[in-house]
Amino acid sequence: MPFAMIGFILGLAYLKNNSIQLNSNLLLNKFSLVVLCMIFARSAAMAFNRFLDHQYDALNPRTAIREIPAGIIKPRHALIFTITNCLLFIFCTYLINSICFYLSGVALFVVLFYSYTKRFTSFCHIILGIGLSLAPIGSFIALTGIFNIVPLLFSMIVICWVSGFDIIYALQDESFDKENKLHSIPTFFGKQKALFISSILHTIAALIVIIYGFNFSYTLWFWFGAVIFLGMLIFQHSIVKPNDLSKVNIAFMTSNGIASVVFSIFVIIDILISNKFL
User: Fold this and answer.
1) Which of 2, 92, 101, 229 has the fewest CB atoms within 10 Å, counting from its CB?
2) How many domains does the chain have?
3) pLDDT bracket for residue 6 (50, 70, 90)
């Protein structure tokens, strides 16, 4: 959601820089539909993942408390919920514009397909990153109706950032995944090398942030956000060790939540104040 908001504000700046006016009602309508799309797509992806993995979740002590293996929700109800959210997502894209509607199936395929990937590839984390990286591109297209490289750069940040922290999260299930023939970077390379790969991905994300900031001459607002974002990346790698995974949830949830929200707030402030697109 935070990066989707960056894409939306970039779209707004693009329209203003090209002297394209949107009345307040239309702008609010577009914004509301983008938020709904994010909610429906995420809900569909999460529910489908729980549905598809519920048998594995029941065997894994860490995930056995989840709603389906715990008997709180029936698998078919999770599937119905998934389908309902997919239909609502498609309907919202139809209301936005034709290009979003035509691409809605592609977006849903990517975010749902991720749930299958751990069954056959160790690079499932990259697929997750690609799925989430659609947010800034999608929200930009929703407002402008065109494709542009600027939100794509933020998507590249998302791919590396998400893939990196998902590898850290997967460290918890290395033994379980090996026993059940599931694939991940930790099961293929081991914990120590997996952490190294995660750090490489996060370094690439950091470099893109820095290069982006310098190339487009952003102000101190951007750099405040960038420093916090990069600091949170460093922090999560400092508290997770191959022989100590006790702080994985802090790294996964807390540090990444702070990183994305704070970074997006400062980037949005910068764009709104300077009205800068390129």
Assistant:
1) 101
2) 1
3) very high
What mean pLDDT is reported for the chain?
Answer: 91
Tell me the residue range of the domain where 24 lies.
2-274
Q: What global pTM score does this model have?
A: 0.91
Could you tell me which of 75, 147, 150, 82 has the C-alpha nearest to residue 111?
82
Q: What length is written for the chain?
A: 278
pLDDT score for 1 = 85
pLDDT score at 217: 64
Q: What is the mean pLDDT of residues 144-149?
A: 89
Look up the CATH number of the domain holding residue 200.
Answer: 1.10.357.140
Task: For residue 253, give Cα distances in angstroms to 166, 213, 250, 258.
Answer: 11, 26, 6, 9
Q: What does the pLDDT average to over 222-234? A: 92
pLDDT digits (tens, 9 = 90+) for 151-181: 899 999 999 999 999 999 999 999 999 999 9
Q: Which residue has the higher pLDDT, 69 or 252?
A: 69
Nearest to 128, CA basis, from 161, 173, 104, 154: 161
